Amino acid sequence: MKYLYYPGCSLEGTSAEYDISTKVLLESVDIQLTDIEDWSCCGATAAESQSHLLSYVLPARNLALAEKMNSSNQILVPCSACYLNLKKVEEAIKKDKDLLGKINTVLAEEDLVLKGDMIVRHLLDVLSKDVDIEEIKEISHNKMAGFTIAPYYGCQCLRPFTVFDDPEEPHSMDELIRATGAELFEWDMGGQCCGASNTSTKPEAGMALVGKILKAAKGADAILTVCPMCQMNLESSQKKISHKEGIDLEIPVLFLPQFLGLAMGKTQNDVRLDLNLSNAGKLMKARV
Amino acid sequence: MGQVSNERLLEQTETVKEMIQTCIQCGTCTASCPNNEFMDITPRHMWRLLLTDHADAVFSSKSFIMCSSCYYCTLRCPRGLELTHAMSLLKQAASKLKLKQFQRSSLFYEAFLDSVKKHGRVREMEFMTNYFISMKNPVIPFAYASLGLKLMAKGKVRPEFPFGGKGKLTALFKKVAELEG
Ligand code: SF4
Ligand code: SF4
Ligand code: SF4
Ligand code: SF4
User: What is the reported pLDDT for A110?
Assistant: First the structure.
């Protein structure tokens, strides 16, 4: 299987381990990724807070570049915020030809044209729908048996576009986790919000949401995420929040492909557990 | 509101008012909002104020900038209103009108987009530095300092921008500004 790949800014900077582990994992299940050439930032939530048209043009530029490559018509995106932004354009231009016209007027500045042939897929969508779960089972040989794992989805891979999972009670990670031999941690925080950039701009509000999630995860051996910002939020302030709440809330947080990679025999170095801000190595230490 | 008249605010919030015309004030949006305890005016109340032309009250509160775009309200609103988008439009209005009390968020977004415009991608260090400089607030950076140090220790903060392709999106930004007037 072949997909075009949109890593997004976080994956080439602060979340390099998400990028690396995604590639390592997909390679081992025979999925080929090709970077969208000269891709640029999707605008995150910043564009939408400043200009309506810009919030469409920035992701659209990348869709247009992808179309130009004439290879796959599917774009795989690991970052939930990027996914939402790219998906937003895919959906909007199906109905709103006026908007498509405006976007193309702007893209003409770079001699780009957007037709609307691309299908935007979240990494979790591809892992849970396109990858043969039996293959993961076979290769992993119950390697993760004994662990109880809490899946954290966050918001933007689930909502507002409900493409591959239930936006209120998500389950797409369940089978993937069980396929490794691990047990599923039952909780209802999987689809709750971590506060997004509030943790930077309005720390008090952001930390409160992260605190709720970490508290609910007590009893799990690790939390898995599928979004660089969720990951950063859940990992980066565990000590501070533990101190504030007066209980130990430290817990390993791993990107889903890091966990699946480990289950399938990759080393901690292959999936770069050393780059995680939480004590992710602790999870595997229990093993050796 | 002081700096800007209610008329001017109403002008800027016309689109939002239209969008939420059919609100039945059921309160589902408020109940679904993870940030509601940090809002002085609840989302439901905000829609009511906009519908009754009290835009000044909406902008005297900071409720809408607390929105973290989780899309729960949009998902659950029984009238199918695009509430997360409505929140963004309010953020856009606050930034356009350069309202003082929202300066902090506006500057954050501006610094971010500035980095995108220049490099095509976000250069995290530059974006944070610009943000702090434009805030002229020496205390706030300390809140980030610990995260910054953690990231640096992991070699995750790159002082040099990776390649970045032709990058620069100035032409696109200019055209957008032209079209939006
Ligand atoms: S959402 Fe974040 S990671 Fe994705 S392209 Fe935009 S800035 Fe980069
Ligand atoms: S959980 Fe937070 S970072 Fe993750 S998608 Fe939702 S708002 Fe964004
Ligand atoms: S959920 Fe929808 S209808 Fe109900 S109060 Fe909120 S905006 Fe109005
Ligand atoms: S999208 Fe914003 S306003 Fe709506 S529930 Fe989420 S945080 Fe609250």
Answer: 95
What lines the ligand 3 site, CB under 6 Å? B 23-29, 44, 47, 77-79, 81, 83
Query: Is B149 in the A-facing interface, judged by CB distances under 8 Å?
Result: no
> Mind listing the domains of chain B with CATH numbers?
6-98 (1.10.1060.10), 103-180 (no CATH)
CB-CB contact of A8 with A78 (8 Å): yes
As a whole number of angstroms, the distance between CA A182 and CA A176 comes to: 9
CA of B6 to the centre of ligand 4 (A): 25
What residues have CB less than 8 Å from B80, skipping those under 6 apart?
Answer: none
Residue in B113, B117, B122 to alter for ligand 1 test, most ligand atoms within 8 A of Cβ: B122
Residue A200: predicted pLDDT: 73
Q: Which residue shows structure tokens 């607390």?
A: B66
Q: ipTM score here?
A: 0.91
Long-range contacts of B142-148 (CB under 8 A, 24+ apart): B143/A203, B144/A200, B146/A240, B147/A236, B147/A237
- Ligand 2 centroid to B102 CA: how many Å? 22
Taking only the tens place, the pLDDT of each residue in B46-103 is 999 999 999 999 999 989 999 999 999 999 999 999 999 999 999 889 888 888 878 8
Q: Using a 6 Å cutoff on CB, does residue A227 contact ligand 2?
A: yes
Taking CB atoms and an 8 Å limit, are B176 and A53 in contact across chains? yes
Rounded Cα distance between A113 and A103, Å, is 9
**Domains in chain A, ordered, with CATH?**
2-124 (1.20.1050.140), 139-285 (3.40.50.11810)
